[in-house]
Amino acid sequence: MKIAVLVSSSVHPVSGIPRRSSNDAAALEVARQVPDSEVVVLHAGDASDAALPGYLAAGVEEIIVISMQPGDDAVEALLPCVADSDLILSGTRAEHGEASGMVPYLIAHALQRPLVAQGLALEARGNVVQVTQFLPRGTRRRIEVRTPAVVSVHPMAPVRPRYAFAKRRAGRIRVVPGSRRGEVPSDAWVCRPTTRAPHKLVAVQDMKGHARMLAAVTSDTRAGRVVNDGSDVEKAQVLLAYLREHGYVDARHEETE
Amino acid sequence: MSGAQDLAGVDRAPSRSGVRRVDPRRPAVMGANGIRRILPDADAVAHARPEAAAAVRVPVVESGPRLRTTEAPKRCFMAVVHGERGLLDRHAQQTIAAAALLADATTAVIAVVLGDVEEDLARLGADQFVVLPDCEARAFQPDREMAHLDALISRFRPAHLFLPDSEEGCGDLGRRLAAARGMSIAAAVVEINARTLTCYRDGRTQFAERVWTDIVLLALDVADARLPWVGHGERVDVVGKPFATRCETTSSPSRTSATSPASASIRDLGCASLASSDLSLQEADFIVAAGHGVRDISLLRQLADRLGAALGASRMVVDDGRVPRTRQIGATGSTVAAGLYIAFGISGAVQHLQGIKDCRRVVAVNLDASAPMVKRSDLSVIGDADAIARALLRLVESPG
Lengths: 257, 400
Description:
The complex is a heterodimer of chains A (257) and B (400). Chain A has 257 residues and is α/β, with parallel strands linked by helices. In chain A, 26% of the residues lie in helices and 29% in strands. Chain A has 8 helices and 13 strands. In chain A, the strands form 2 sheets. Chain A has a 9-stranded mixed beta sheet, with helices on both faces. In chain A, strands 2-3 form a two-stranded antiparallel sheet. In chain A, strand 7 (115-125) and strand 8 (128-135) form a beta hairpin. Mean pLDDT of chain B is 81; it is low at 1-11, 52-61 and 240-259. Classes of the chains: A alpha/beta (257), B alpha/beta (400). At the A-B interface, helix 4, strand 7, strand 8, strand 9 and strand 12 of A face helix 3, helix 5, strand 8, strand 9 and strand 10 of B.
C-alpha cells in the first residue's frame, strides 16, 4: 500500500527554533506502522527549511519537497504528487502559518476521495482500512474506508515518533519543481503581531442601577432540586432515576428494570 | 420653636439645628418590581389619593425578557451546532450567542441543531431553530449532514454560517462544506466584531485579520453566552419538506454516488467508549468524585467502575493519599468538562468549583444542605455519602 504523508514545518513556540510538527510526525509514525506500506513523505514549500530534517530523524530515507514560492497554493502543488497513492495522511492542523486545517479537505475534494478526520490508528486489510477516530470525552469511533482515501491524524494518536540523529544525517531531501498553477489571494488577511489577548464578544448590559447591583451581589447559580427526605435507598433511587433520565446508566440495565 | 410644624409631617422644614431632616417613613410607592420608591415631591402626595399615586407611579418594567429585535428580517445568520443528550455544550452555546450578538436589527438568527436539544434556544438569541435528530454526533454521516445543510442554505440563504471549531464534528463539517462548495472559511477565529474577524497565525505570534468569510469557525470562548435579551425562538419544522426525503435516499448506494462519489466507500462501525480507568479526567464524560465526606474510597471506585464513570477526587482526599494526584479535580488538579459530575461528600470549595465549571450536569451527595456544591448542583441529595453510594451500588448491581 502506497501511503503519502504530508508534513509541514513548525517552530518552537518559545525559542522560535524550526522543528517538525508533532502532529505530522505522529501521522508519519502511524503510516510507518502499517505493514507492507510504502511511505512517501511530501512537503510543499522551501527545501532549505530547517524543520524538515526532523522528519528524516523519525526514520524515513527521503523527503520529497515540492518547491513553491510563498504565494503559491500548496494544495495545487501537492495534487499531482499524491494522486497515485492509496492513502494520504496528514496532521489535523499545521502548527505554523495559517493553520486552517483545510489541506486534507481540499485534497480529498479535488481527488474526490473519502476523508476521515481525527484518525488515531489505522488497520489495513487489503484495500480496506479501518480507522479509529477520536471523539471527545473518551469516545472512539471505528470507520471502515476503502482506499484510495484521505485520513487526517489527531494529535493524540497513541504513537511515539522517534528521533534518531544518525537517521537525520543519513536521510536526504529531494526537490521536485512544483507546478505554479494556483495562487492564494493573500491580500484578504492583514497580519500584525499579537500585543494583547483577543477581545471577547460580550453583550452590552443596559441594566438599571438596581439590577446591576443585584447582578454584582448575587452569582448566577441555578440551584437545582434538593432531596432531603427519605431513607438512603430512596435517595439512591432518586440518583438512579436521574442517571437513567439522562442516559448515563447502560441500556442493559434499563432492559432488566 | 417650630416643633408643632415638624410633628405635622412637613419634613422639608429645617430643624432647630439648621440640618434638613428627612422623614424615613414619608410617603412611598411600591413598584411592580418590588422596589420601594420614595416619591420626589412629598407635598404632592401628603394627602395621597389613589389616583394621585397612580399618576406619579414610575413606569412598570414589563415582565419577561426583552426581544433582541422586532423588525422584519432582511437576511439571516445561521449557527450550526451539535446537541448531545439534549444539551448544548459551552462552545455550541457561545456560537449561537455570537451569531445573535453580531446580528443587526434586520438580521435573523437561525440555529441548526444536529442531534437532540431540550434547551431554550431563544435564551441564546436564536430567532428560529431547526432540529435535525437524525444527525447525531456519534454517527459518522457527513453526507447526510451536508445534504441537510445544503437544503437549509438554499432555503434560508444565510449571509454567514457560524460553527464551533470543535472536535465534536462541527469543525469537520464546516471544512467539508467549505471545500465542497468553494465557500470562504476562517478557522479557529479568536476575535470577531461587526466587520472583521481575527485568527492566530504562526503559532500565537501574529493576529491575522480580515473581513468576514462565508463560514466562520469560532474557537472556544470567543463570545459570552449570557445575553440580556432573547430571540424569538420559533421552531421551524423541516419534516415533510422535499429535502427531507432527499436526505433519506442518500443512504442508498445509488444516490450516494450521485451526491458524493467518495462516501460510498465509507462504513461506520460504531462508537465505543474507553474504559473509565483508561480515561483521563479531562476527557471523561461521566465522573464520580470523592470528597472528604467519603470514608470508603474502594466502594466509590467500585461504583464508578460499575457505572462506567471515571473516578475523581477533591484536594482533601488526594492529600490524604487515598487517591493518586492525577485524579485531583480543581484549581491545582485538572479542569474537567464532563457531561455528568457526581460529587460524593464534596462541600465545593471555590478552587474545586473552578475545576468543574465546564461540567454540564452536576449532582451533589452531601450531608450539609448549605454547602456551595449544593448551590451549584442540578440535583442535590442530602445524606451520608457512604451510605448513599452503597445503596446506589446495590441498586445498580441488583437485576430488578
